[in-house]
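#lab-general

N.A. 3:47 PM
ok so I finally got the sequence cleaned up, no stray characters, all 146 residues accounted for. can someone with queue access submit it? mine expired

B.Y. 3:52 PM
send it over

N.A. 3:53 PM
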Amino acid sequence: MKETIFIRWLPVILWAIFIFITSANPNPYRSLPASWSAQSAPVQANPGPKRITFDELLGRFLHAAEYLVLAALIARALVGRGDLRLVLLAMAFGLSALYALSDEIHQLFVPGRAFEWRDLSLDFAGSTLGVIAFAFLFTAWRRRAR
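B.Y. 4:20 PM
back already:
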């Protein structure tokens, strides 16, 4: 059975919708299990230098991870069963980065959320890693298929 364009792009569309819904949430990490939250830690009187909390670290990881997946899915949709070309990988990164930018702009209209350059850079880093991971896995899959 031939793979259709719709089938290749459906995971991209679904993942983009997931990102949009998550970004529309004023507190996207609220639904995580309480045991994942560092907010239950006792507050120190003089905490000293600002330390990154577990919630912030988790948020940064999730920002990069969601765009790693998006970029890999876009690369998969663009390459399909064809040859792996640098221009397609660059397009996958570009589309993922453009969606990341639009998502940060979308957050300007969500109460409690804001456009953050740090988040955008994490999204770009995740997109880069996603394209690299896809290229690596696609190349390995092609070698095994031969």
